[in-house]
Structure formats: structure tokens, C-alpha cells
Prior knowledge:
By secondary structure, this protein is of the alpha+beta class. It has helices at 15-28, 67-81, 122-131, 144-150, 163-170, and strands at residues 4-10, 32-37, 40-43, 54-63, 95-101, 106-108, 111-113, 136-137, 142-143, 157-161.
Amino acid sequence: MMPIFLGLGSNLGDRRKNLFDCLREFESDNRTEIRRLSSFYETEPFGETDQPRFYNAVAQIATDFDPVQLLDRIKEIEKKIGREKTYRWGPRKIDIDILAYGDVSLDLPDLVIPHPQLHLRRFVLIPLKEIASRFFHPKLNKSIDEIIFECQDKSQIRLIIKAAKLLADLK
């Protein structure tokens, strides 16, 4: 199966619990398996900065969902955990983005893969590098190291919980 990477974020309520609830939803689905999980990082909000800090992580999953089916499943999980519609880049209990789906490039009205802002956000790039040091962006034709080097985002990212501890807590 091709590597699929999801960006996870939460800045409302119990951020750690929200991310764990999200991961458990994926694990409970017999069509999805979490293969790797980054550490949890506390990060500054992106875009709209007048809001609480986020907990962010990246998960590598395996699934037999195609990209559109995966997006539908993500929306179900976000709704179940309590995501409510706000404004662009607003606070949220959970946010799940498809960062990459193997080497698939897709440009649909509701889904663009790889994520169109992946290369602009350190809060995604740092945890992605942690679990996929050989990640290669299929549209930019650049390695994760090249993307991080060129990234203009200088926001603070602070390690909160190391991945080994997270995986033990998840099981």
C-alpha cells in the first residue's frame, strides 16, 4: 500500500484527548491502520493568530479507501469528535487534512492532493519529517529537507509528547 499522510490538529478543549480520539477512530475502522505517528507538538496558530495554540501531529496510515472516500471518512470523524464550522483558519476541536496520498496528484473542488499548503507550514513539515525522512513532494519534486529549508514559516514549534509515549498510550 502507498504511504498516506494525515495532518492532525486541535486547539479547543482537551487537545491531547481530541487527537487521541481521532487516532482511535481511525484504528477502530477495519479499513484503516495507523502505521506511524509523530510526536505531538504545540504550535502557534496559522493564519488567524488570535486563538489558542494547537497540538499538531502527523500520522501515516494504510487504507483501502480511495482519496474521496478517505475525505468522507475524515469528515465523519471530525463531526463525531465535535468539529463545528467556524471561519477560515479558526479555532477547532479537531482538524484532519490529507497531506499526501502516495504519489497521487489530485485537484478536485473539495480535495487537492498533495495538500496545497503543505510546503508552507512548519507545524506539518516538522512532524512529517519525523516519521517520513525520505518524503518526496510529487508536485514540487523536492525532498522534505529541501522543503523545510525553503519554508518561510518561522513559527514556534515545541515538542510536547514524544511519539514512543503516544504509541504506548494509544494501545
